[in-house]
Amino acid sequence: MTDTTEPEPETKTPALAPSTATSTSTSTVPHRRAGLRGLRALGDGPLFPAAVILLVALVAAALFAPLVAPYAPESVDLSASLLGTTGDHWLGTDQSGRDVLSRLVYGARTGLLGPLLVVMLSTLLGTLLGVVAAWRGGWADAILSRSMDLVFAIPGLLVAIMFVAVLGPGTTAPVIAIAIAYTPYVGRLVRGIAQQEKARPYIEAYRVQGWAGWTICVRHLLPNIAPIVLAQSAINFGYALMDLAALSFLGFGVQPPAADWGAMINEGQSALQQGAMLPALAPSACIVLAVVAFGVVGEGIADPVAKRER
Question: Which pTM does this prediction carry?
Fold first, then answer.
């Protein structure tokens, strides 16, 4: 009699990925992301290094402005009002005879310092709120998420104008207001990626080994999401630069006669009517180039992370 019993299907053992096959014998912790160590090859093509070089040049100009600028930024010479490009004034002068190039160089200080403070404050606060919301979950996640949604719904420039009305024009009020307005952008991003990271096996492995939650977050979760946060911070830097320049242009930010790119555009408007374009065009070009450069750098940081996720 013929045996008709079907043979049992062969059970195949899943092949371990190369990154985990060698580690399982020596460690009980599953594979984790490369984190900041994975950012060894940034940006494809010439745009990324060009953007980095431009930003380095802007930072160097801001740091060494007294050595780079040919004149003092507030040096007035009415006899040299609205000069064109000359050997003494490469970018001409404004209505008060002040050297446009010198004011651009000194304007890089306020143009970069304000956004730097905005990004630092919003990134620290947003990362803290996002990680707490993702890690704690439940009512903590609900309260923090709804709070960030509420702040997200209010335009940042409107918040800045409200702060200026209370604290007065200058740098402090716009920086605080824009930082508060940018916090939900960072917080919502961090919450999403932290929730994904929390579900990874290595997090559960650390929990089983008895690690405290804050230790896992600080030593492992945060370093692994750092590249994405860094990329978003670079992009936010460009937007903050543009917002603060807009506030200075409207008269709510840095006040004349201090050198600031946004204030220089406002002052150069009247020069346009007299045929002098550089007092307004030069700071506008600096803002555009800086914003684009920060965007390119942010995308260059984010691309390697996205490729590894795919």
Answer: 0.83
